[in-house]
Each structure stands twice: as structure tokens, then as C-alpha cells.
Amino acid sequence: MTMLDRLKEANRTAVAERDRRRALKAWTRARAAGAPAAARPPSVLPEAAAEMALRPEPRLSVFATPGGIAFTLLLIALLAWPFALPGFDPSTFLEVQKILAATIVVIGLNLIAGFTGQLSLGQKIFVLIGGYTVGVMTTRFDSSLLGNHWISLVVAIALGAAAGAMLGLPALRVKGAYLSIVTLAFVPIFYTLFNSELLKPVFGGAQGIGDIATPIGNIARPPNRTINIPFTGTAMTDVDYYLVLVLIFGLLFFLARNIVKSRWGRAMTAVRESEIAAKSSGVRVYKVKVAAFMVSAAYASLAGALLTSFSTAQISPESAAAVHIRDSFVYVVMMIIGGTGTLAGPLVGAALVSLIRLLIPKVGEILDFDLKRWTTTLLAILALVSVVAAPGGTVGIINDRIHRRRTRHRYRNPPPRPPALPASLVRPTPREDAATGDVVLETREMSKIFGGLRANDSVSIRVERGTVHSLIGPNGSGKTTFINVVTGVYAPEEGSVYFAGERIDGQPAFITVERGMGRTFQNLQLWRRMTVLENVMVGMHVRVGSGFIGNMVRTGRSRREEARIKARAMGLLQFVGLEDVADQLAGTLPYGKQRYLEIARALALDPVLLILDEPAAGLNPAEVHDLMDLIRRIQRTGITVFLIEHHMDLVMGVSDRISVLDYGSKIADGTPAEIQADQRVVEAYLGAEAHV
Ligand code: ADP
Ligand code: MG
Fold first, then answer.
1. Phi/psi of residue 659, each to 5°?
2. Rounded to an integer, what distance in angstroms lies between the CA atom of residue 520 and that of residue 483?
3. CA 463, CA 460: separation in Å to the nearest integer?
4. What's the confidence (pLDDT) of residue 206?
5. Other C-beta atoms lying within 10 Å of the C-beta of residue 85
6. Rounded mean pLDDT, 60-64
7. pLDDT tens track for 397-421
């Protein structure tokens, strides 16, 4: 190729590239304006669409959402507040700081309780840990670096997270109400610790630690008890400290928001909505719970450290452990009233409850009645009413409204179809790394026994690569048990399981998932309160690797990854025909679509083997016909399909091989024609029908 040719070639590429971008821009603009002609994307689009779909959102784009704008305005108002009001009153100002500190605790609590579904009733412990960290460090190490207030804040975060890990590792082994009781039990334990005579030199016993560094102006104190602006040596005023607190609050909210909207946040919500489905998508449930608990503890600890610094200049274990139990409870009430599992919930809840707590004594004065004593009772009643009447809390109600309006709006004005994505994004792909051998799955004389019942009795089945292999049998014959053993939900009592040539029995579910086994469930296990798109994105959990901290600060890597899995998830939704409902909540879909969504989610892990447990249950005849087509399309991509089904037309129509179970034993194995002619199979089915 001559130099001139090369130049011409480069020029052609550049021109094509420019045209493509122009066409895409014009199309996007027209679509935004709602022009009907723009409903069909220009022909050059597939590549450009891929490019657009794969483009990460800019790091700060989050501020352009309605919630982001509202929050930014709130921050600006809080920052401007001391300067805007003439005759600014330090005591109101103190109350606002307390509300902000409480909000920080509740934001953290909401991460573990609201988004991950693990209710902790001991958050006050972490607040105390933060408070004591500042107290101990700034008074015991006076002049050294360790006595520096800012360093003690950082240590408070670390100690809070460490305490969260220490307590969370055992506590999160248990579930539901037991977890709440365990976390509640932390409170008296720590109360005793801080109160103990033995540790008095450190924690100061019942009196606690006084004289802690603080920026409060009206307390006279020696220079080593003031808080200095770092690197300047200038003492901080209470207004300065307030501004710092507002900024820290803004940052913590932003970080929590990033987690919630990231891969980790989706994993957390998946754990809340269905643990077994989360496991089967490769989410390490326990790890996710512990991580969320550590973050929530770190938030509470930092809030406690700040609270001690600006408000009281002292920390003590209080008069009784009950005080801390009450405070922990108030945090929960704040979360519930604001909106459990919503981003804005903690802000609204902490503000509302704090206002109520401030107003109660005032109302008492008017009524000439000691209403203050009833504060906790009144809050408890309020929480009770909220749980019964509006479980979503204040923000939940508003979100529901918005969602319903949006759905109605979309129903009336359907948006133009998104541009068709390129085939590489739409087509499911079996992963390469497990592609060795012709036998994908094999069980050898495998038995699973439930208290004497041999649900699987010495079952040997070989599933060959690229086939559709069906497992049939009457109800209760052990089909679901078979796939639960194969996917690692149960360990078999006897025999062995091989996947792509490697022995896998006894390994946990997330390992089998990582090796390329995707499954759906007989009883639908979708994450109902996540969108359709998010469901599929969690399915991709094991195919991406950005870490917790990366997600928290939205690194370039995590944003690129996010864009990539979003585009891929959208592609898989197109493959199963659900792209139109991508942003609806999964729980609102009709049955048939929910089944398809489970399939799309399983395809998201690029499975070598796709296991479908009665996918036709609850489908109408037309839908069954579609399903047959879908299974064939999946097989054509090279993915091996293992199908459990009762619907005989479907089974006989798509299967290459069929195995039959009866009372836990395999009674036949063969092609559809062989199975239909098999006398024992006919008997097993007739027998079963005779019992029904
Ligand atoms: P199928 O999917 O073929 O309808 P299953 O595998 O669900 O059958 O059940 C097979 C047998 O094992 C049934 O008798 C069922 O009651 C029993 N079984 C299934 N799971 C459990 C379990 N977790 N504990 C005890 N028994 C179980
Ligand atoms: Mg079953």
C-alpha cells in the first residue's frame, strides 16, 4: 500500500466516522423532540448505538437528576444559613447539627437495614465507639499527632468499620428477627465495657471523659482543647465547624448514593429481595452483608465522633443501657418514617422525627402537661402507624406516586423504540473458559437424602454439550432436588457431580455460578422491587469486578463497567423480548414475562449450561410456543440447556435427550421417541395421574 493509499484510507475512515456521529446526533436530537420520523434510527446506527450504549456516564452527571438538584439546593441552603440570618442563634444551630449527625447514622442504617434487609437494633453502639475514639485520643494523647482532632475522626471511621466487622461476622450468620436480637444484645455488652471500673483509666468509668476538644465558642478552654483548622494553627469557630459538618454530611450522602446505584448496591438489594436468587447469580451473600454492615457502622461511628466534638465536649456511658437501646430504636423509627430502602428516606425521616422531638415539649408547655416524658412512646406509636399504613414511609409514598404516573404516561405516549443494538450485545454467549470436553454435566450415582427420604436415589445423568436435555417425572419425583444439588444449593450424601470435567459437589452455589451454570426457579425468584434491567444487571455480577470502594467513589473503571453491563443487559432483554419494560419493577410484570426475565438474568452470566426449572408453568399456549422458539434460539448460540418440564409438547418438541425420574430414581434415558415408547415411563405417568 502506497503512502497515498494509506492517506485515502484514513480519510475514508474519518469521513465515515464523522457521518456516523452526525447521523446519531441528529437522530438523538429528533428523538428527544419526539419527531415521528426519528422513531426509526438511521441505518448506520448499530455501531453508533453500541458506542452510545457503552459510553459511561460522566462522573458528576448524578447532580443533574431531580433528586440530585434537590439535594444540592439543600446543601447550599445549609451552607448559606449562618450567613443569611441576621442575629444568628447558636442554639438552633446546634440542633441542626444534631439532626445532621442523626441523619448520617440513619443513612448508614438504611444501607444495611433498608437496602440489604438486615435490621440492626444496635447502631447507637457505633455512635458511642466514635464518640469515645475522639474522647480518648484527644485527651490522652494531647500534644502528639494522635491527639489531633482530625486524625481522631479518621480513626473513628476505621474503628467503627472494624467494630462492624467484628460484630457483623458472627451476627450476620443469623437471619431476620435473630439478627435484630443479636445486635440489640451488643448494647448492654458495650455499655458494661465503657462503664467498667477496670477500664476506667481509658474510658473514665461512669463519669466518662470530659473536656474534649470542641469548637464551641462560649466554653473557655486551654489551647490544646480547641480544634484547629488543619495546617494553619488557627482555632476553628463553631460556624467553621458547622460548615465542615455540612460538607461531610453532603459527601457521606453522595458516597451512600453511589453505593446504592452501583454493582454492590444492586447486590445488596438482591440479597434483600431473594437470597437464593442472589446466590444463584453468584453474589456472595455473606460478604455483601458484612460489607454493608461495616459501612453502616463506620457512618454511625463518624457521626458519633462529630456529635461529641460539636455538642457536648464530653462523652459518657449515660445512666443506663436503656438509653442506648432507646436511641438505637429512634434511628430505626427515623428510617421507617422517612422511607426504608430509599435514598432520601433518612434525610426526611431524621428531619421529621427530630422536629417532632423538638415540638413535643413545646406542645406540652401549651397544654401544661409533661408531654416530654412521652416522647419515645409517641414516636413508637408513629412508627407503628407508619409500618401498618405506609410501609414505604414518606419517601416511599412519593416514589410510588411518581412511578405510577410515569407508567401511565408511558402507556399513553409510548417512547420510540431504542436503536437496535449490535448482534454481539444481543446474542447470549457461552463463556470460553469452561468449554473443554463434550460432557458438560455429569452426576454419578448421586443421592440426596432428606431425613430418610431418598429424594434423589443414585442418579446418573450425562448432559452433552450443545444439546437440550430434559428431565421429566411426576411431581415430587426429585427433579428440583436434582438441580439444587447440581447447582450447589445442597451437597449430595452419596455419589459425585462433575461440571465441564471437574468435580464440583459440595461446593457453594456461587462457585458453580462462577463456572458457568445459570438457572431459573420453579417458584419465581425475581428481585421484585428492582427494575427489569437491574435484575439482569445483577445477573452479570460475576462477570465484572469493580470493588466496593471503586463503586463508592465512581472511579473511571466502575463507570465504564457500569455502562458495559447496562448495554449488555439491555441486549439480553432484547433477546428475550423484554426491552420495552426494562425500567418497570420486576414484581409488576405478568407471569410469562417474569419467566422470561429469569431466563435473561441467567443468560447474563454467560452460562455454559442453562438450567430451566418448569419455565412453562403458568404460561398460556401461545406463550409456550414462544418459549419453545426461545429455547431453540438459546441452543443455537452454543449454550447447553437442561430443561425440567411437565409440558409434554414442549419437552418432545425441543429435546435432544430426555431423562426420566420416578420416586427419586432414574427410570429411563433416551431420545424423545424412545421415551414415548418406554413402558415404565408410561406407567409412572399413568400411576401419578391415578393418584392426583
Ligand atoms: P419435583 O421437583 O420433581 O416435583 P422435588 O425435588 O421438589 O420434586 O421433591 C422431591 C422430594 O423431596 C419430595 O418428596 C419433597 O417433599 C422432598 N423435598 C424437596 N426438598 C426438600 C427439603 N428441602 N427438605 C425436605 N424434603 C424435601
Ligand atoms: Mg420441582
1. -115, 150
2. 10
3. 10
4. 83
5. 11
6. 70
7. 998 898 888 888 877 877 666 667 7
Return the number of other C-beta atoms located less than 10 Å from residue 50's C-beta: 19
Using alpha carbons, list the distances in angstroms from residue 615 to 115, 521, 647.
29, 8, 9
- Which ligand 1 atom lies nearest to the CA of residue 664? 10
3-state SS, 94-143, equals HHHHHHHHHHHHHHHHHHHHHHCCCCCCCHHHHHHHHHHHHHHHHHHCCC
For range 651-667, the mean pLDDT: 94
pLDDT digit string (tens) for 169-179? 988 888 878 88
- Return d(Cα 163, Cα 130) in angstroms, integer: 10
Res. 36 pLDDT band, cuts 50 70 90 = low
Rounded CA gap, 627 and 641, in Å? 13
pLDDT at 559: 87
Distance 648 CA to ligand 2 centre (A): 15
Answer for the pair 544, 264: CB distance below 8 angstroms, yes or no. no
SS3 646: coil
Q: What are phi and psi of 312, to 5 degrees?
A: -110, -20
In the reported structure, the alpha carbon of residue 481 is separated from the centroid of ligand 2 by a whole-number distance in angstroms of 7
Pocket test for ligand 1, best of 480, 612, 662 (most atoms within 8 A of CB): 480
Q: Which residue's CA is the nearest one to ligand 1's atom 20?
A: 481
Pairing outcome for strands 640-644 and 657-662: unpaired
* Cα 552 to ligand 2 centroid, rounded to whole Å: 40
**What's the average model confidence in pLDDT over 223-238?**
74
Residue with CA nearest ligand 1 atom 23: 450
In the reported structure, the alpha carbon of residue 474 is separated from the centroid of ligand 2 by a whole-number distance in angstroms of 9
CA-closest candidate to residue 27, choices 3, 45, 46? 45
| 469 three-state secondary structure | strand
Residue 203 to residue 35: CA distance in whole angstroms: 70
| Dihedral, 144, 149, 153, 156 alpha carbons, nearest 10 | 60
Can you read off the three cell numbers belonging to residue 19?
457521518
For residue 362, which amino acid is it? K
Burial string for 24-39 (b: 16+ CB within 10 Å, else e) reads beebeebbeeeeeebe
Confidence band, pLDDT 50/70/90 cuts, at residue 449: very high
> Which of 31-35, 405-409, 654-658 shows the lowest per-residue confidence on average (mean pLDDT)?
31-35
**Nearest CA-CA partner of 283 in 487, 511, 471:** 511
Ligand in nearest proximity to the CA of 613: 2
CA nearest ligand 1 atom 17, residue: 455
Distance from C-alpha of 264 to C-alpha of 551, rounded to nearest angstrom: 7
- As for ligand 1, residues whose beta carbon falls within 6 Å of it are 450, 453, 455, 473, 475-481
Say what the pLDDT of residue 44 is: 47
Q: Is the pTM of this model over 0.70?
A: yes
Give the other-Cβ count within 10 Å of 496's Cβ.
15
**Nearest protein CA to atom 16 of ligand 1, as residue:** 476
Whose grid coordinates read 462503664? 195
Q: What is the pLDDT of residues 435-445, one digit of tens each?
A: 567 899 999 99
Residue 520 Cα, ligand 2 centroid: separation in angstroms?
11
Beta strands in 248-400 (DSSP E): none
Mutate to test the pocket of ligand 1, among 481, 611, 685 (most ligand atoms within 8 A of CB): 481
Cell numbers for 247: 460538607
Nearest alpha-carbon partner for 407 in 149, 642, 582, 177: 582
Q: Check residue 331 and report its DSSP letter.
A: H
Report the chain's mean pLDDT, rounded to a whole number: 86
Rounded to a whole number of angstroms, the CA Rg of the chain reads 30
Which of 539, 543, 541 is CA-nearest to residue 601? 539
